[in-house]
Amino acid sequence: MKRKHRHIILLLFPVLFGFFNTYAQQLPEIVAAKAAIAHSNSIYFEAFAKGDSAIFINRYAKDCCIMAPDAPPLCGADAALQFFRIAYYQIGLRNGKFTTTNVYGNGDGYVTEEGLWESFDANNVRFDNGKFLVLWKKTADGWKMYRDSFSSNRGK
Q1: In angstroms, rounded to a whole number, what is the distance separating the alpha carbons of residues 124 and 25?
Q2: Are strands 74-75 and 126-139 parallel, antiparallel or unpaired?
Q3: How many alpha carbons fall within 13 Å on the CB side of residue 48?
Q4: Residue 33: partners with Cβ closer than 8 Å, 6 or more residues away
Q5: With 0-12 CB in 10 A as exposed, 13-18 as middle and 19+ as buried, what is 90?
Q6: What pLDDT is stored for residue 155 in this prediction?
Q7: What parts of the chain have a pLDDT lower than 70?
Q8: If you ran DSSP here, which 8-state letter would residue 156 be given?
Q9: What are phi and psi of 64, to 5 degrees?
Q10: Where do the H-state alpha helices sit in 52-123?
Q11: CA distance 33 to 42
């Protein structure tokens, strides 16, 4: 009986070794993606605190789509600037916070970030919070938000 189990283990070893070897080779890419996402998220809301749309725009890929609740998607090269103007001038966003709860993928050009967000006004009062999914794309300029989808927890 023991001999039979040993044969099964010996047969499975190359498969398991190949899986872990592939995972280990991809690990640096996912680690790099997570670090880039954390850095981007750490400065994202500086754009609103400083009133500087360039900081905000630089977080997004040129072919991005921002899918905000109760609004049609904003897509393309001008999408980030359009959204910044709405959030800054119409909504009054001046600061916020992201909490990443997970990053999925293997770093082969796209990863998905899942998390929570909070938005604050000029008096640093939280006026909204919710959840998000962001599909990040590896570009020549580094990891950029490619698809940004979020919704509020407030309800109507």
Answers
A1: 43
A2: unpaired
A3: 26
A4: 103, 105, 107, 111, 136, 138, 143
A5: exposed
A6: 73
A7: 1-26, 156
A8: -
A9: -75, 165
A10: 53-57, 79-85
A11: 14
What are the structure tokens assigned to 87, written together?
Answer: 């959030």
List, in order, residues 6 or more apart from 77 with CB less than 8 Å away. 62, 63
Sheet holding 74-75, edge to edge: 74-75, 60-67, 142-152, 126-139, 110-120, 95-104
* Tokens, residue 55: 């900081």
18: number of Cβ within 10 Å: 10
Q: Tokens 């280990």, residue?
A: 24
What the block records as the tokens of 110 is 């796209």
Structural domains of the chain, with CATH: 28-152 (3.10.450.50)
Distance CA 71, CA 139 (A): 27
The token duo for 122 is 């000029």
This prediction has a pTM of 0.81
Per-residue confidence (pLDDT) for residue 27, from 0 to 100: 81
Kindly report the length of the chain: 156
Distances in Å between the Cα of 112 and the Cα atoms of 37, 48, 53, 59, 156 are 10, 24, 24, 15, 28
The amino acid occupying position 25 is: Q
